[in-house]
Amino acid sequence: MSYQARSGRFGQMVSINLLHAPLMVISTLLGLIGVMVLYSIAGGDFSPWAWQHAVRLAVGFFLMYAIANLDLRTLFNFAYPIFGVIFLLLVAVEIFGNTNMGAQRWLDLGFVTVQPSEFMRFA
Predict the structure, then answer these.
(1) Rounded to a whole number, what is the distance in angstroms from the first to the last CA of the chain?
(2) Could you tell me what percentage of the chain is helix, strand and coil, using 3-state DSSP and rounding each to the nearest 5?
(3) Helices (H) and strands (E) in the chain, counts
(4) Residue-wise pLDDT tens digits, 66-92
(5) What is the pLDDT of residues 89-120, one digit of tens each?
(6) What pTM value is reported for the model?
(7) 3-state SS string over 59-73?
(8) Alpha carbons 74 and 123: distance in angstroms, whole number
(9) All residues at 6 or more sequence positions from 59 whose CB lies less than 8 Å from its CB, including other chains
(10) Residue 32: CA atoms inside 13 Å, Cβ hemisphere, count?
(11) Taking the C-alpha atoms of 112, 38, 66 and 21 in order, what is their torsion angle to the nearest 10 degrees?
(12) Is 79 exposed, middle or buried (0-12, 13-18, 19+ CB in 10 A)?
């Protein structure tokens, strides 16, 4: 495990380089087991589900690595624009949202349906 941090103007952590090796190994094994299970379910063929899962797994690991090495000052600089975009998505839910089981919480973007209130937790 490697941890390197610098202190900013007010003593906040500025940079995180933290990748816990056992967690990475366990996550990789679980993801690969998922690929093998999907390969087995598809009758020994990668095409329907296993290939998509493997691609999403690779993208997820790339994002995990990128976020772990992100300079926090960069994230702080984009905090207000991110908040604004997510707020606009919440307003869009009120106008264009899908109603499921009596609740209007989902926004259909065409290729994916999202619930912007979940993103607002992090903004």
Answers:
(1) 28
(2) 55, 10, 30
(3) 5, 3
(4) 887 777 788 788 889 999 999 998 898
(5) 889 888 888 777 777 788 887 887 888 888 88
(6) 0.58
(7) HHHHHHHHHHCCEHH
(8) 14
(9) none
(10) 6
(11) 150
(12) exposed
Tokens 């797994």 correspond to 57
Q: Where are the domains of the chain?
A: 1-74, 78-123
Phi and psi, residue 98, nearest 5°: -85, 140
List phi, psi (to 5°) of 15.
-135, 135
The DSSP code for 75 is H
Identify the burial level of 1 via C-beta atoms within 10 angstroms of its C-beta, where 0-12 means exposed, 13-18 middle and 19 or more buried.
Answer: exposed
Q: Which two tokens stand for residue 82?
A: 């991110």
Pair 115, 106: CB distance under 8 Å:
yes
Strand 113-114 relative to strand 103-108, pairing: antiparallel
